[in-house]
């Protein structure tokens, strides 16, 4: 009897050793990762008008190749026209901060006077919710109007983000449009939106399905680890000859 109980406990321990790694996989590493820290304007590096840092990708969403392309086009724009554009991405903002308030405060930190702000454009993206904002100086509003700037944020930048978080495409498209407008060329306009038949939420994503299946397996194994030893012990007890006989 004692030997059987020890065997049952050994089986249960074996199940648990098997389940724990699967449970970690099913839940995903995101549960154990440190969440991205919020950022405030006071944590942003300083900048001067002559600073050549055109892209500040603290959200880590732009590839190095595309960051180089964007920086090169902005540098060429500045040399030819004097108009300057800077892109900033951050993961999350301090509590109570919005993309608009952060962009305005950063714009004033980097360019504290009206003269310094006059030929500047600053676009900020907060990646945790894909909220973005843009602010421009007074000198370039005649070419980069408020309506075009708003369209750049809501459509040129927004459409690729809503279509699967295509950050590189979003920033490349936004930079191309801004450079064209600020160079005095006709506004190429926002990207063409093609209606998709599939409605978001109608179909489960593959990764969601995989995670659900893994979780189901883990739950099943946990139940098995408890029930199998109990059932085996019960069967053993039932099959034991009665002492009354």
UniProtKB/TrEMBL annotation:
Keyword terms of this UniProt record: Membrane, Transmembrane, Transmembrane helix
Name recorded for this polypeptide: TPM domain-containing protein
Pfam families recorded: TPM_phosphatase (PF04536)
Keyword Transmembrane set for record: yes
Domain TPM: 55-180
Residue intervals passing through the bilayer: 214-236
NCBIfam families to which the protein is assigned, alphabetical: photo_II_Psb32
Gene3D superfamilies attached to this UniProt entry: 3.10.310.50
């Amino acid at each position: 009897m004692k030997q059987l109980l020890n065997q049952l406990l050994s089986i249960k321990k074996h199940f648990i050793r098997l389940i724990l790694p699967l449970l970690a996989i099913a839940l995903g590493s995101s549960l154990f990762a440190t969440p991205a820290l919020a950022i405030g304007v006071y944590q942003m590096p300083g900048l001067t008008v002559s600073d050549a840092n055109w892209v500040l990708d603290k959200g880590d969403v732009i590839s190095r190749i595309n960051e180089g392309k964007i920086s090169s086009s902005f540098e060429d724009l500045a040399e030819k026209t004097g108009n300057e554009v800077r892109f900033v991405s951050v993961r999350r903002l301090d509590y109570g901060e919005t993309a608009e308030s952060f962009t305005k405060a950063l714009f004033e930190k980097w360019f504290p006077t009206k003269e310094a702000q006059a030929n500047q454009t600053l676009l900020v993206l907060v990646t945790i919710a894909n909220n973005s904002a843009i602010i421009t100086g007074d000198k370039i509003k005649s070419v980069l109007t408020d309506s075009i700037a708003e369209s750049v944020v809501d459509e040129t930048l927004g459409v690729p983000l809503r279509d699967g978080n295509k950050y590189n495409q979003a920033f490349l498209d936004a930079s191309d449009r801004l450079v064209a407008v600020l160079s005095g060329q006709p506004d190429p306009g926002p990207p063409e939106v093609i209606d998709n038949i599939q409605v978001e939420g109608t179909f489960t994503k593959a990764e969601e399905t995989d995670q659900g299946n893994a979780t189901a397996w883990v739950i099943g194994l946990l139940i098995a680890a408890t029930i199998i030893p109990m059932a085996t012990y019960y069967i053993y007890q039932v099959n034991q000859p009665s002492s009354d006989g």
